């Protein structure tokens, strides 16, 4: 059975994807540097990496020797390794660029210079963040015309005008499912690096005659998400606060929405891309295809963890946060033949049951927010 390399495979998605690939009969190799921000200074909970069916290589996608060794004999590369904090990316620009863009460039460079390369397909974990605000219509004056608003300014946010407004009539715009053909408008450094990854993969694969799939993931949640990283993962951050008896600070008016997709569905979408015979060579959205407000998911999580609903809508905001976005998942269904299976209530309960069993991590949300405030990225 063919060998699949997962860069960043020791992380949240990699953990689930490894199990899914092994179950489907693939051999898995993981290249991961066990970044302390994700795994802690002394990584724990990684016993599964010593499974005999998993070949674990501790190393970085930014080190040529590590990449070279990891690629030997590989048929498919799934490129997951990345720095993933949207807010943090706004002030750690060089690091995000070095790992996300530099790491992808190095991977492709090693492949380009290996005349005997075995890799036939690269599957990139990209992000919905590349759309920025995504697609909207004005229900009042042009309900059939898709528009793509720019990010909201600090002035607009400070005035608590949370919704996007129609440039023609001033009415609030309404989000519609974002398609892969909609324009990319990255609004954070993280998003800019994910978009750069896409371009590198697309252009290099075309010139090297390799197939590619770019999966633009929406908000992935589920069991195994890092509880130690205060920069990303709303359910993880909120679960720690609920378990500490702290209130949940809800930004803006709490009605901002996201497309939450369970990690099991994400792993199955990657598996479908690995298994696809014939070429893919395109971008594919991976989401649930529905939108959920932050207030709603915070409420579900509080209930699932048996906590009281201690939600505080703070009207705070972060520059670079989008208002709404959810995916058009037609291509996921027609190209990869995959329909998401895990409903939100079931997925949140599964996450809560898992989180409850974990050692209680330090609540670092206030620290992460203080870093943003100090840089005037949060109001
Ligand atoms: N989780 C989401 O909601 C989401 C949404 C959209 C896109 N994505 C993308 O999916 C991918 C995986 O995300 P995740 O949620 O599993 O993140 P994660 O942080 O749990 O895992 C990332 C892994 O990459 C490793 N890593 C970091 N720098 C590395 C380097 N230089 N060399 C080798 N390994 C390195 C980390 O140690 C970690 O194990 C990322 O590319 C991310 O941008 C995730």
TrEMBL record:
Coiled coil: none annotated. InterPro entries: Epimerase_deHydtase, NAD(P)-bd_dom_sf. Pfam families: Epimerase (PF01370). Pathway: Bacterial outer membrane biogenesis; LPS O-antigen biosynthesis. It comes from the Bacteria. Residues 4-136, 176-287 form the NAD-dependent epimerase/dehydratase domain. Belongs to the NAD(P)-dependent epimerase/dehydratase family. PANTHER family: DTDP-D-GLUCOSE 4,6-DEHYDRATASE-RELATED. This is NAD-dependent epimerase/dehydratase.
């Amino acid at each position: 059975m063919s060998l699949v390399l997962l860069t960043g495979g020791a992380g949240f998605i990699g953990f689930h994807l490894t199990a899914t690939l092994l179950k489907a009969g693939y051999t898995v190799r993981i290249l991961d540097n066990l970044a302390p921000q994700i795994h802690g200074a002394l990584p724990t909970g990684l016993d599964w990496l010593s499974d005999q069916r998993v070949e674990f290589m501790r190393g970085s996608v930014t080190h040529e020797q590590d990449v070279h060794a990891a690629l030997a004999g590989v048929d498919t590369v799934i490129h997951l390794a990345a720095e993933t904090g949207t807010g943090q990316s706004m002030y750690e620009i060089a690091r995000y660029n070095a790992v996300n863009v530099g790491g992808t460039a190095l991977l492709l460079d090693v492949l380009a210079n290996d005349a005997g390369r075995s890799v036939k397909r690269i599957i990139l974990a990209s992000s919905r963040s590349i759309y920025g605000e995504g697609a909207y219509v004005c229900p009042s004056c042009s309900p059939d015309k898709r528009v793509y608003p720019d990010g909201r300014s600090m002035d607009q946010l400070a005035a608590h005008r949370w919704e996007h407004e129609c440039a023609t009539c001033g009415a609030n715009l309404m989000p519609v499912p974002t398609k892969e053909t909609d324009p990319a408008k990255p609004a954070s450094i993280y998003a800019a690096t994910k978009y750069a990854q896409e371009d590198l993969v697309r252009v290099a694969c075309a010139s090297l005659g390799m197939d590619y799939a770019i999966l633009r993931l929406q908000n992935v949640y589920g069991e195994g998400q890092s509880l130690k990283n205060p920069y990303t993962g709303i359910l993880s951050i909120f679960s720690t606060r609920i378990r500490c008896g702290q209130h949940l600070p809800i930004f803006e008016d709490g009605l901002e929405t996201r497309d939450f997709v369970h990690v099991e569905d994400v792993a199955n979408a990657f598996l479908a891309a690995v298994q696809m015979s014939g070429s893919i060579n395109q971008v594919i959205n991976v989401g649930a295809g529905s939108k959920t407000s932050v207030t709603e998911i915070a409420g579900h999580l509080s209930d699932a963890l048996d906590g009281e609903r201690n939600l505080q809508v703070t009207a705070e905001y972060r520059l670079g946060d989008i208002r709404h976005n959810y995916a058009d998942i037609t291509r996921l269904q027609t190209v990869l033949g995959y329909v998401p299976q895990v409903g939100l209530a079931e997925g949140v309960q599964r996450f809560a049951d898992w989180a409850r069993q974990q050692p209680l991590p330090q609540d670092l949300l206030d620290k992460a927010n203080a870093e943003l405030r100090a840089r005037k990225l949060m109001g």
